[in-house]
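User: My collaborator sent over this chain with a note saying "see what the structure looks like." That's all I know about it. Can you take a look?
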Amino acid sequence: MKRRKKSRKTNHSEKPSPPRRAKTFSLITVQNASHERKSPLETARTLSVHAGETAEVLGDSVVTPVFQTATYCFRKSAEVRAYHEAEVKSRFEYGRYGSPTQLTLERKLAELFGTEDALVTSSGMAAVTDTLLTLLSSGDHVVMTSECYRRTRAFSEKFLSKFGVRVDFVSPRADDVIRALGRRTKAVFLEIPTNPHLYVPDIEVVAEKCRKRNIPLLVDPTIAAPFNCDPVGLGADLVILSLTKYLAGHNDIIGGAVLGPRALVDRVREYHGTVGTLLPPLAAYLILRGIKTAALRVRAQNESALAIAHFLQTHPKVQRVFYPGLPSHPDHEIARKAMNGFGCVVSFEIQTDLAGAERFVDSLRLFKIGPSLGGVESLAEIVATMSFWDKSRRERKRLGIGDNLVRLSIGIEDAADLVRDLNKALRKV
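Assistant: Without extra context I'll predict from the sequence alone. Here is the result:
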């Protein structure tokens, strides 16, 4: 993730609007010094600690406190009038519209991603739904990749269609995405990389075409890890991600975010404040704490995942490994251009059936059986039974998901210990 002074300009119909809230306390401003750093992660390490943090809140606290309140009171009636008449809000009114804890998190995220603004939500799916329902209307068309987060797909199929929005699911190949664009296309939504095969769309190519046709490009870099990928630099108009994963990083908090130009984020913010998909203050506090060590964790996860992918690729009981850091991955060259690291997710097919795959995951000791990714604990799942249990075998086959496909999320344990655990479990197959 690289920090820029400005987001890419957009020419969408709405004129840029002023921020909803003015700064209510002094902030630490960290200037970009990436040219002096050895790697993007070192810049991220500094920004992760200092970006967006307050210098003077409640007795010069080093840590941003939890503002656990539903209501912010006014001292005089004149303040109420001034608040509603002000074009720029200089204070807080009600918890559903934000808190100082939430605001600090939003500013930190905006600095980390190099965007004008950020909005945090109750979950990654809330970020997805808030954004799509803001941008799309009846009769509109949106393009998504066929291999995307299953809940994003379910929302699009079951709910967007109810509102008269047409959704086309295509392969992650840039040519296929561009070919699907039409006169009524109002958004393109890509994930980098995809789940579970970790295909990497060429975002720069798609972004160029979207820019020419004035179509907002939405990119979800959740699986890549924020410090491994710079969606805005690649051409995304809006970044949508789950904060639950790498940034919070401890499998204990749910959250999401929308980042981009203020004009677009403010549109999503208005919808968000109405439907109430707010991130609780305590969750914002814990995510702030998690972000401060995220760059260190992601570096370790990148290294361990690559080592494990190499181990699996040479194991006689492994049929195929999906990891964009491997030269054998079909999108390796695109990944090398688009990513600084390749993330913690490794998928692979075992030379066995469903019963054998279940014996494998049941034999693991360090890996816990569970969904999600990006946390400090390593996780394993059989994709067919964990994430696609409600799909028929024929449908799963059409999606390339066999009964022998296993997905790993690599934590921060020692890579050698994880390799030993995997090796022992593979002997049970």
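A starting point for your reply to your collaborator: DSSP finds 16 helices and twelve strands in the chain.
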